[in-house]
Amino acid sequence: MKIILMRHGKPTFVGAAKVTSREMADWVKQYDISDTGGDIPPQSAIALMEKEPIAISSTLPRAISSLQTLGCEPVLVDEVFKEAELPLYLVPGVRLSPFHWAVVYRLLWLCGLSRQVESLKMAKARAASAAVMLVELARESQRPVLLMGHGIINRLIARELKSLGWQEESQPGKGYWGAGVYSVR
Length: 185
Fold this sequence. Notes:
single chain, alpha/beta, globular
């Protein structure tokens, strides 16, 4: 049995090169409704499709459109697989790239500063539920399961799979289309 945790392709939304913390809230909203357009998956992602896995997806358009690019329709789309939200803090007078804001906000989140979004503890609990869902689906179907998800939640799910006895065959890459493969004997 195998479970593949893949990060979505590159979203079409780019936005401004630098934004204020107030503008970052709108940037995140636009990113969350963005699909992947014509982003082409690498051969490594395409190769994982050879075993015809059952496809599962986050509810976010960038994940669903990534599966469609791979020629798959998800059998399950669930919010349990969506990315952990960023806690947005106002920092007057500072303009950073959205990437750098995301790093700052994610570090604050990892330090326990979650404001009105899901905390790290809550995200870990959600990842545990997600891992159980994936394991049950793999056992019931006796087929590989591919989750098209997101960077942080996929890493949390991977930890849960390992705690359940699943072996990591390959670590997920850090970029778009990166995939980790997990198996159980």
